[in-house]
Amino acid sequence: MMAINKRIPLLLCLSCCFFFISPSYSDSNTLEQSRQLEDGQHLVSADETFKLGFFSPGTSKYRYLGIWYNIPGFDNKKVVWVANRNIPIFEKSGVLMIDEFGKLKISVNGGSTSIALSSVQSKNINASATPLDSGNFVIKVVDLDGSTGRILWQSFDYPTNTLLPGMKLGGRMKPDHMWSLTSWISESIPAEGSFSLTIGVIINGSSQLIIWWKRSVYWTSGVWQDGQFELVPVLSKEGQGYKNFSYISNDDEKYFTYSINGNHTLLARYMLDSRGAIEESTGLAPIGACSYKFDMGCVGQISPNCQNKNDRFELRKGFMSVQAVRFDGSYNLSLFDCEAKCWNNCSCRAYDFFINGSQTGCEIWSEETGFAEYNNGREIYFLNHFLNHSNNAKWWIWLVIAVPGSVAVLVFCFLFYFIQRRRLEEQDHENEHEMRLYELESSTTKEQKRDGKKGKELQVFSFESLASATNKFASKNTR
């Protein structure tokens, strides 16, 4: 009994040491069939450049399985791949696993539902999954000796909105497969948006890159010739000094790809954003930015006659006076889609893009709608010519108010001056009248004082005195 008691502290000590020196599963590099990756745990590439795990983009409360750059202290994850972009997971209930057939799947809510990420093999197979230093996530066969063999599935075959070095844009004939990028709906919703970047093959065999907006050509790179794209020379064999593009064409596949020279792999990527522009990792001006400037390769969109080519949408915060026409439900509209709806509607004055859970939608307002600007109000996008018209209207309103007001002030001043002048004239007249009367009285008094009786001499008065005393010789003075 004493021997057993002595062993207990030793076992506890060894257990603690093992706990601290063994790496946690969240820092593991490989997912084996016998294990699961829960929300909050991660797989990290061998050189620690990339990390795989569950995350919530932007302000979303939904969870997605993705790969991002593993940059310590970098809060805004640079996500390069999303597994379940169109099937979000509510709360932290997702678990990543590989089943007995080598199929990669996400189990949700304790296994009640699952999201398949790879195809099912025809027989039981031993496999493992690993994120590589390139950002590719691969499932490989595990041989009896523990070594890994052929690739069963890889994330590079199913890109989302980001092109990493070594990825392909193009197509494979046998078996039939396409490599293309598709934009996110918004920064908070990685579901498939309305823009896609693909390869386009011309009749003569030449190829180019094409950005599609739904089913319409939005932008083209120009044909690939002499090692570069006709309209985007920066994307070439020697573009930017360290990014080398190349075009591979044979009987099995045709695709574009690029590689990195030297030590420039960190954050090297091209991303198709939700407005249809290609953003480059070094922060250069986006390629194909047709929505706010006309780049080389932009395909002119047909605008309604009511719109001017110089018109733009401007963001304001405030409240509208009436309810908007609402487009939502299962449309999954992007901000650009809402803008296009307003642009192509001649009565549309403004629009708003909103997110409702994992769904999105638009609201548009007509010309008759009133707007009250308020810093803490909702974000609303206005056509600038309506804003200018509104400002001009306000100017005319102030003018209409100011002119009559000024006239009224002038009239008031004139009346005030006239009344005051009239009063002064009357006052002067009264003073003069009193003065003349005083003159008459004083003359009579002097004569009486001279001899103590009324004088017999004729008194002489001025015409002004008599006129004043008789009120200008009024007839009522006669008897």
From TrEMBL:
<dbReference type="InterPro" id="IPR001480">
    <property type="entry name" value="Bulb-type_lectin_dom"/>
</dbReference>
<keyword id="KW-1015">Disulfide bond</keyword>
<keyword id="KW-0812">Transmembrane</keyword>
<feature type="signal peptide">
    <location>
        <begin position="1"/>
        <end position="26"/>
    </location>
</feature>
<dbReference type="Pfam" id="PF08276">
    <property type="entry name" value="PAN_2"/>
</dbReference>
<keyword id="KW-0325">Glycoprotein</keyword>
<dbReference type="InterPro" id="IPR036426">
    <property type="entry name" value="Bulb-type_lectin_dom_sf"/>
</dbReference>
<feature type="transmembrane region" description="Helical">
    <location>
        <begin position="395"/>
        <end position="419"/>
    </location>
</feature>
<feature type="domain" description="Bulb-type lectin">
    <location>
        <begin position="28"/>
        <end position="152"/>
    </location>
</feature>
<feature type="region of interest" description="Disordered">
    <location>
        <begin position="435"/>
        <end position="455"/>
    </location>
</feature>
<dbReference type="InterPro" id="IPR003609">
    <property type="entry name" value="Pan_app"/>
</dbReference>
<dbReference type="Pfam" id="PF01453">
    <property type="entry name" value="B_lectin"/>
</dbReference>
<feature type="domain" description="Apple">
    <location>
        <begin position="306"/>
        <end position="386"/>
    </location>
</feature>
<protein>
    <submittedName>
        <fullName>Uncharacterized protein</fullName>
    </submittedName>
</protein>
<keyword id="KW-0472">Membrane</keyword>
<keyword id="KW-1133">Transmembrane helix</keyword>
<keyword id="KW-0732">Signal</keyword>
